[in-house]
Amino acid sequence: MQLEIKTSILRDGKRYEKGDKIELPESIAGNWISRGYASPISKKQSKAKIETKELKVKQVETKDDAPNKD
């Protein structure tokens, strides 16, 4: 289960700070949530936001596109 840490905590020699996101087994996660150490992360929250950029293409005039200057 994915959790977001609410308070600084030490687990297996590693320190987790408030706001860190970690994965724990259901049994341990439930214990941490009930004690107020962490809160569950829904699947929608855990997905990273992907930013897209608009592709800007410079239009180049070709011989077929050029206006007739006769």
Morphology? rod-shaped
Distance between the termini: 73 Å
Give me the secondary-structure category. alpha+beta
Low-confidence runs of at least 5 consecutive residues = none
Q: How would you write the strand order of the largest sheet? A: 4-1-5
Strand percentage: 15-25%
Number of helices: 2
Helix content: 10-25%
Outline the biggest β-sheet: 3 strands, antiparallel
Q: What's the gyration radius in Å?
A: 26 Å
Short description:
It is built from two helices and five strands; from the N terminus they run ββββαβα. It is of the alpha+beta class and 70 residues long. The mean pLDDT is 81.
Q: What is the strand and helix layout of this fold?
A:
Elements lengths: L1 E4 L3 E3 L2 E3 L4 E3 L2 H10 L2 E3 L2 H4 L24
Antiparallel strand pairs: 1-4, 1-5, 2-3
Plain-language structure description:
The radius of gyration is 26 Å and the shape is rod-shaped. It has a domain at 2-43. Strand 2 and strand 3 form a beta hairpin. With 70 residues, the protein is of the alpha+beta class. It is built from two helices and five strands. Helix content is 20%, strand content 23%. The longest helix has 10 residues, at 26-35. 4% of the residues are buried.
